[in-house]
Amino acid sequence: MAQQEDNASDQQADRSLTMSRAMVEAIAHEMRANDEVFYMGEDVADYGGIFDSTQGLLEEFGRDRIMDVPISETAYLGAAVGAAQEGMRPIAELMFVDFFGVAMDQIYNQMAKNTYMSGGSVNVPMVLTAAVGGTYNDAAQHSQTLYGTFAHLPGMKVVVPSTAYDAKGLMHNAIRDDDPVVYMFHKRLMGIGWLPAPDGPKTGVPEDDYTIPFGSADVKREGADVTIVTLGLHVHRALEAAADLADDIDVEVVDLRTLVPLDTETILDSVAKTGHLVVVDEDYRSYGVTGEIIASVAEAALDDLEAVERVALPDVPIPYARPMEDEVIPGTDDITEAVRTARGDE
Amino acid sequence: MAQQEDNASDQQADRSLTMSRAMVEAIAHEMRANDEVFYMGEDVADYGGIFDSTQGLLEEFGRDRIMDVPISETAYLGAAVGAAQEGMRPIAELMFVDFFGVAMDQIYNQMAKNTYMSGGSVNVPMVLTAAVGGTYNDAAQHSQTLYGTFAHLPGMKVVVPSTAYDAKGLMHNAIRDDDPVVYMFHKRLMGIGWLPAPDGPKTGVPEDDYTIPFGSADVKREGADVTIVTLGLHVHRALEAAADLADDIDVEVVDLRTLVPLDTETILDSVAKTGHLVVVDEDYRSYGVTGEIIASVAEAALDDLEAVERVALPDVPIPYARPMEDEVIPGTDDITEAVRTARGDE
Amino acid sequence: MVAVNELQEMYENMVTARQYEERLQEEYLEGKQPAFDISAGPIPGELHLAAGHEAAGAGVCQHLRDDDTVTAPHRPHHVAIAKGVDLKRMTAEIFGRESGLSGGKGGHMHLFDPNVKFACSGIIAEGCPPAVGAGLAAKQRNTDSVAVAFLGEGAIDQGAFLESLNLASVQDLPVVFVVEDNDWAISMPKERVTDVENGAQRADGFGLHGARVDADDAVAVYDAARDAVGRARDGNGPSLLEVQVHRRMGHFMGDPEAYRPDEDKDAAQQRDSIERLEADLRANGVDDETIDDLRSRAHDRVEEAIEWAKDQPEPDPDDAYEDVFVNPPSGVTDSEPSTADTGGDD
Amino acid sequence: MVAVNELQEMYENMVTARQYEERLQEEYLEGKQPAFDISAGPIPGELHLAAGHEAAGAGVCQHLRDDDTVTAPHRPHHVAIAKGVDLKRMTAEIFGRESGLSGGKGGHMHLFDPNVKFACSGIIAEGCPPAVGAGLAAKQRNTDSVAVAFLGEGAIDQGAFLESLNLASVQDLPVVFVVEDNDWAISMPKERVTDVENGAQRADGFGLHGARVDADDAVAVYDAARDAVGRARDGNGPSLLEVQVHRRMGHFMGDPEAYRPDEDKDAAQQRDSIERLEADLRANGVDDETIDDLRSRAHDRVEEAIEWAKDQPEPDPDDAYEDVFVNPPSGVTDSEPSTADTGGDD
Ligand SMILES: Cc1ncc(C[n+]2csc(CCOP(=O)(O)OP(=O)(O)O)c2C)c(N)n1
Ligand SMILES: Cc1ncc(C[n+]2csc(CCOP(=O)(O)OP(=O)(O)O)c2C)c(N)n1
Ligand SMILES: [Mg+2]
Ligand SMILES: [Mg+2]
């Protein structure tokens, strides 16, 4: 029944869904198929998830499987670890990824390490979901993506969908995976009532279940001159920049989709073709995703590289006021400019 | 009275100290000079710090200023934040950096951001000390360095001394700095009774106070052929590798000393000279320090680069048994090999 | 007994807070209708209004001096007003203006006014440890200042709060924890997240003084807080005070409150602590004219603050690069704008 | 009343644990004398012995089945033995051998035996949330399994424990928290870190059942645990049980214990729960021969385990790259050894 994806861009479907609907559809499917799957988090039951991540699920599955929990992230994320070690398949939501600091030990020292520390005799088949991202002026403690923070620490697979199609396929894969998966959905892409999404993330989504394997980046646009490597919200900003530049520069846009595992091959293939690498993300600039991508290419194919640029959040906490938030979160113009710089025309 | 360092390698002193003695000397000096400085942590009073970070201080300063606290890292690191915001200058110890996960919110969302979120009207003049590093088979939850994790998140200065001389000067600077400073000392370098240190970190240390400014990397060995950029314990392994290679390859060893701010200039100058860059650290390989250093050079001086290599902990939790721990923590041989690879002779 | 002038002060604070939030609500909704878009309008981002909580802020802060420290959570306005935070600059901050308390960097969840020692954090319960730290500073310096941490009843399940109770208790610090029990944590009613009806019962497990005010009544809060703050000021240690309040609105603006029974909403409207205090004033012989005066003074202050704030200039986009540190690293500044990565969208 | 065969079982478990640790101690010190070097000898790394804690492990685990889950902290041997963890493979793990429970990846603080559902964590109190999760799984699956989390009295100030009490309580989960009160947290006596003499008092703040066993007495522990485990198994919710034990040794091997008064050390030696239980056995008519049999059976089992373990091969260095995931990402494996970075030191 389940199909493995051939090529995301070939997929067509009659209906388009928002990213949140696609994600919820995958969760509902897995919950119907497997009694051991359940969802726990703050405001996931009656509220349906602050970011619509569980919309409608309480009605079908009831409170035992769509479970509100106290504001005790260490206790309930750790409870998910414990339940997963018993063979259940919990999905546990950290409402904003920014809150990781109150529960990071359970995440990185238990969830991510118990498999290894037990020599593989124990495994932790859970999904940790978390909302990421800014662009709506929620300031320094509610706007981060923290991609690099999670991807740096071993033992967790890290998934960041950018479209409804990807969100569903990656969620199916995440729930079926026997390892801990951190599934980071960008608030701006979800299609939440109170936070309008751009058009890009709403895509055709097959009704059947399908999985997108981890470690397979997706070339969201082909191009010959410059490679943009990006993920999440910035896939859409990169596509916009590519469209703006189309008359002058032929830009390829690579959507990583997962940070761990990282699909270095797709990146290297693209850079081998274009020679120009621009890495774009919404996380802090230093010691993070942009550095890793550039270094991976420099290590493996230094000779292919004619120019590198990175576009990321400068190393500042995210400011509240609109002019400053706009300044620090990379915009389409910033990407356009970086592509031009990479091509040597300033 | 205090002197600014001219050039670390020129400094001579009659006495050599272990790194822990040098660090404690700086703390004691600052505590004598300023009543507002105090030290809090687990087992810092009667025990003198599990890693000798407060040895002898209780006797001089008493329990109110050398303060044992409950095993409640969130509460006491947060209390340090609160006391610092009142204008005191707390030094708070996280016994092992590996425990950051139980208190990371106070560290990265409060300590590191309150200055910015207040528009600079509040500041947080505290030092967070933490022991880092492996090499003694303490396994996955007690052996990490987590350099990249801290350096990635804005608002903290991140300091990693490799010698007694640096440890003292950097500690003076850390306590006097008006911003939060994370001071990470490597257990293997401290000269603790139960964990023998190599010879390198024990250096001459002037009796007077002196400061080493943040953001100034130190060329610990000059060389013309290959640049090794490293920090902490691996400064000594890199120096060993350089000595081993001396007949064939002339290696320069750059000790970063601080990750935030990062002294890109010194790195670029060195690479401009050598063309070959090997980055070595004890943190996880991906999305961390090695990626950042390589990317910074690729961005600023791609044409200078003839080869890059990185030597870091592969993306696995740190295993317990000796053969496996030895395998994953970069050794002198790994560095030698990487230098040879960078030079094209395998 | 409460002196009449104190009743009047509390009343004025409470009316100011209520009127202030009514005006904020109007301003907030501008540009967000008919379709709600949290990122649009003159006040973007989340907005948590405290209508129905006023008695807690006014009753407690009535006992505080400028040199006493207060930390507030995500719902801070009524406490800020009662503590004497500069209303104009606070308003400018909420509007994201240059002359805001934080120059527009913080927004409504991150109000800092060092003149009256007021600070917020948007992370549940994470204001508690810094309040403990302020208490510690007072004890270390031998002053009679106290520190008060406000939190919601949903926050009493969080480690940061619980650890703080213990640390304050064992060190006998001048700290008061004030739990504002509005029965709800977003969509989760108290009984779904804890088995304890009276949150002050948490104190029992740590050996500190606990008390609860069962009615949403400023005078009762005043009385209980006199005791708690008095103990702290007199060196008799910390207290935990839970206060019944009511949430008259959604959790944040835009919350549809579909989860909340109508009777509960109605009940919150009916138990109005402001009307109650007005009755108390009258019972104490305060006449209509005086009450009208107090109300119109509040009204004028609010209007003045809002008009002033709206007249203030927006921050410059490049201000975003300031204030990460108060001692910015000289020479090396990672957070400086570079052409490519931060060219700005505007 | 306790049946004689149960007394004998507990006695055998306790004697096994004591003898086991005496042998471990000998082995551990090999290669570490005269100068103590924690990284030398057949057992490197930290070693926390539980001599004096045996009654807690034996008395509680006597009520547990293989399908009940136990999580233990850094001091786990006595609990592991009482829970029925495979002694040979556990010993091989402690010696870092290939046939260890985790193939040498975990070491003594990370013992995992899924056959009897035993796991450890070296981070204070962080075993509590996973135990709550095991209780949750039992409830969800409607089995009568229970989960027990062991922790030290120093851990009752940690958020992870306190949050877990609340979560277990509000969800009525079959969980028992067992606090082993040995009066010390490394060098910190209980009264320096909490105001509560009886740690079971923590239960009061969360509305769960609490009890304390004041004497270091296996029979008393057995009785109290029968009640606590019975409640959990019968669906009557969680309990907190504090048990007085004694630390007969330093916190870890190599701890000079300079902070500890001699009388306290002496007292710990005198209150030996094993001698006490032996007296109980005699009072119950068990004769010398039977007791000698139990002791020699314990002795033989210990010797056999240690000899077996020492005969086992060490892991291959490259084993370090296995077990990060049980579903390793196909194609892309970041943790694979590459020539340069992981060439090995050996
Ligand atoms: C650690 C953390 N977890 C979750 C949240 C999201 N959150 C913000 S407010 C809130 C509810 C708080 O309820 P309560 O403490 O009762 O305060 P109230 O909003 O009712 O005033 C939640 C869950 C957060 N900010 N921080
Ligand atoms: C979060 C965390 N903080 C600190 C430590 C370091 N540490 C290890 S054991 C210990 C003392 C524990 O005392 P207690 O809980 O009483 O257990 P005991 O060692 O007495 O058995 C400490 C502080 C840790 N492992 N984890
Ligand atoms: Mg509430
Ligand atoms: Mg103890």
Word description of this protein:
- The complex is a heterotetramer, with 2 copies of chain A (346 residues) and 2 copies of chain C (346 residues).
- Chain A is an alpha/beta fold.
- Chain A folds into 2 domains: 7-204, Thiamin diphosphate (ThDP)-binding fold, Pyr/PP domains (Rossmann fold, 3-Layer(aba) Sandwich); 218-342, Rossmann fold, CATH 3.40.50.920.
- Chain A contains 12 helices and 16 strands.
- A 7-stranded mixed β-sheet of chain A has the order 4-3-5-6-8-7-14, sandwiched between helices. In chain A, strands 11-13-12-15-16 form a 5-stranded mixed β-sheet, with helices on both faces.
- Chain C has one domain: Rossmann fold.
- Helix content of chain C is 40%, strand content 10%.
- Chain C contains 11 helices and 8 strands.
- Mean pLDDT of chain C is 95; it is low at 331-346.
- Chains B and C meet through helix 3, helix 4 and helix 5 of B and helix 5 and helix 6 of C.
- Bound molecules: thiamine diphosphate (2 copies) and magnesium ion (2 copies).
- One thiamine diphosphate sits between chains D (74-75, 122-124, 151-155, 180, 182, 184-186, 251) and B (42, 71, 73, 95, 99, 102).
- Chains A, B: Pfam families: Transket_pyr, Transketolase_C.
- Chains A, B: Residues 17-192 form the Transketolase-like pyrimidine-binding domain.
- Chains A, B: Keywords: Oxidoreductase, Pyruvate, Thiamine pyrophosphate.
Instruction: Enumerate the strands of the largest sheet of chain A in spatial order, edge to edge or round the barrel.
Output: 4-3-5-6-8-7-14
Mean pLDDT value of chain A: 96
- The residue-averaged pLDDT of chain C reads 95
Number of DSSP strand runs of chain A: 16
Number of helices of chain A: 12
Number of domains of chain A: 2
Weakly predicted, low-confidence segments of chain C: 331-346
Q: What summary fits the major beta sheet of chain C? A: 6 strands, parallel
Count of DSSP helices of chain C? 11
Give me the CATH architecture of chain C, please.
Answer: 3-Layer(aba) Sandwich
CATH-defined fold name of chain C: Rossmann fold
> Sheet bearing the most strands of chain A, described?
7 strands, mixed
CATH superfamily of the largest domain in chain A, called what?
A: Thiamin diphosphate (ThDP)-binding fold, Pyr/PP domains
Under the CATH scheme, which architecture of the largest domain in chain A would be assigned?
A: 3-Layer(aba) Sandwich
The outline of chain C comes out as: globular
